[in-house]
Amino acid sequence: MLLRTLLAVSLAVQPVGAADLPDLGEVSRQYFSDQEEQAIGRAILRDVYADPRYLDDPEIETYLNQLGYRLVSVSARNQREFTFFVVSDPTINAFALPGGNIGVHTGLLLAAQSESELAGVVAHEIAHVTQDHIARMVAAQSRSYWPTLAALALALLASRSNPNVAGAAIASTQAYSIQNQLNYSRDYEREADRLGYDMLSRAGFDPRGMSGFFNRLQRASRFYDSSAPAYLRTHPLTSDRIADMEARSASAPYQQVQDSLDFQLVRARLRAADGTPQDAVAAARAALKERRFSNETAARYTLVAALVRARLFKEAEAELKPLLAGPSVHPMLQQLAAQAALAAGNPARALDRYAAGVSAHPGYRPLQYGYTAALIASGRHADALERLDRQLTLYPLDRRLWRLAAEAHAQLGHRLQSHRAQAEALALAGNLVAAIEQINLGIRAGDGSFHELSAAEARRRDWEAAEKAQRQK
How many domains in the chain? Predict the structure, then answer.
């Protein structure tokens, strides 16, 4: 697959002994800076957001970022910025990209049998980033490989999943020699195992999650033959790695770690979206009837979400009642209840539920997105902008908030402000060329105040300078 190929190339290195690995910040930074790596990371992330397999689901992405930063906070380089995103792909895989960007396939989220297993894979990928494995691979060759790697990564992302197209993309970037000259580094994999294991323990997860997941994949691979799980093809296991992980697990004190409700609900959300709406409803009902679930709340969430997909709104409302009856309702349940009312054509009930949700969980941004979108859909554009102004003061780098602001301003006829907000969203998604085009449209609209026009022109100058700097690298 496309992103598996990218990871295999980007993490490939010539075998070296652990003692020969360069110190962090030594050789890797001799050839390029943190700023250069971040610029390449932003360019790659721009193409990730444009890829149709990118799952633009704020609730699942919020959970993954919370999990990821829980692990990052106990890592050796906890000041580094990361972006965690989800790829809609049934294969079991995860990957690290330059600039602290880490992708997780939906197949992995569903295949993990515990939250600690999922955390183990994410921790392993975080370690690849914190240890500068991609940077050290490039530095071991020459500076010339760094822009080549960026071009290769973008070409591979553009090629989607077609292996023939991916091969052409590699050749077109004149980077085919990278695959021939670089072999996968077992040392880097062992280093990521060790540091990932430490992150798991310090973050309060069961450290056996990593070894348990890898062992299960290895056992399963015996039945896959050439179609082994994607994660094993991008992260080949060796007997030494398995033995090392088992030894660490055996020496660790036993601790039972309960999966969070967030983990269970995210998996429930993915199950409800699988297959046809009718199949999803039937599967959810069967699981509840036969009590094939580890968490009943999550199982009922699956059923309600599937019923909403199938437009069986009366049944969905009946199933929602027990979920909303407790003294403390999870924000994902609040969001589902509001979405169900909105889909059923009851915006007043939806707004009431959103208001209750954001009051109980003011920091949960997916509820803020939903509430604001519902206000816009109900024609309450000024109320939506007032809420957005408050949220953007708190989270000025949130591209989803800027997109909503663009829509609200457009509904009110604020052309400059609408184009400016859309430009901010595009710039945050890494697309500076499109951001400049949007801000130019806004400036030419001529309907803003002197202050708004001056601010727009200043942002245009910033983006033009940044885009020029990218082109010159």
Answer: 2
Active site residue 61: no
| pLDDT tens sequence across 232-269 | 766 777 777 878 888 887 777 777 899 999 999 999 99
The residue range of the domain holding 41 is 2-251
46/40 Cα distance (integer angstroms): 10
Pairing mode, if any, of strands 83-87 and 94-97? unpaired
Which of 36, 37, 193, 206 does the annotation list as catalytic?
Answer: 193
Residue 96 maps to a domain: yes
Considering the domain boundaries, does residue 326 fall inside one? yes
Q: Is 125 a catalytic residue?
A: yes
The amino acid sitting at 146 is W
Q: Is the same domain home to 57 and 195?
A: yes
d(CA 426, CA 472): 21
H-assigned helices in 11-144: 28-31, 34-50, 58-72, 106-111, 115-130, 133-141
Question: Tokens 């027990």 belong to which residue?
Answer: 322
Final residue of a domain: which of 381, 415, 449? 415
Q: How many CB atoms lie within 10 A of CB 170?
A: 20
Q: Which residues contact 457 (CB under 8 A, 6 or more apart)?
A: 443
Catalytic residue among 59, 61, 125, 317: 125
94 in helix, strand or coil?
strand
pTM reported for the whole predicted model: 0.86
The residue whose two tokens read 């409800």 is 272
In whole angstroms, give the CA distance from residue 39 to residue 317: 47
Could you tell me if residue 472 is inside a domain? no
